[in-house]
Amino acid sequence: MTLLDKQTLNKVKTLCKTTCCNYIDGKCALTDSTCDYFTKAGDNVSCDWFEQCVLQNDTELKKAYEERHGISYTETGIGKYSRICKACSNHFKTDTKNKLTCSNECRKELRKQTNSAYYLRQS
Description:
The structure is a single chain. The chain has 123 residues and is of the alpha+beta class. Helices cover 41% and strands 11% of the residues. The protein contains four helices and five strands. The strands form two sheets. Strands 1-2-3 form a three-stranded antiparallel sheet. The protein has a two-stranded antiparallel ribbon with strand order 4-5. The termini are far apart.
């Protein structure tokens, strides 16, 4: 069973020739041998460098390639910063550096805790 059909394999080969920095005169600079996609078993192999660095440039080919290989990427969370909520201790992701809580309920709860601690110190 082949992983890539002829049309997709030809597009992969073209992309390798034109944009892969490791493809030099038909050889792979990483393995110092013939590029895997240009061998007889080229439709049955995958190259990590190609998938992570080169394939990202062509969205149509990336979609076809991933469908044929059965690769699926799921985004686990949105946001740049990973935080722990100060109120409930759950992990959450946020786009801002200063966010301390995961939700409005936790924000209100943290506010209550902070206020009660302040007033206890004052008395």
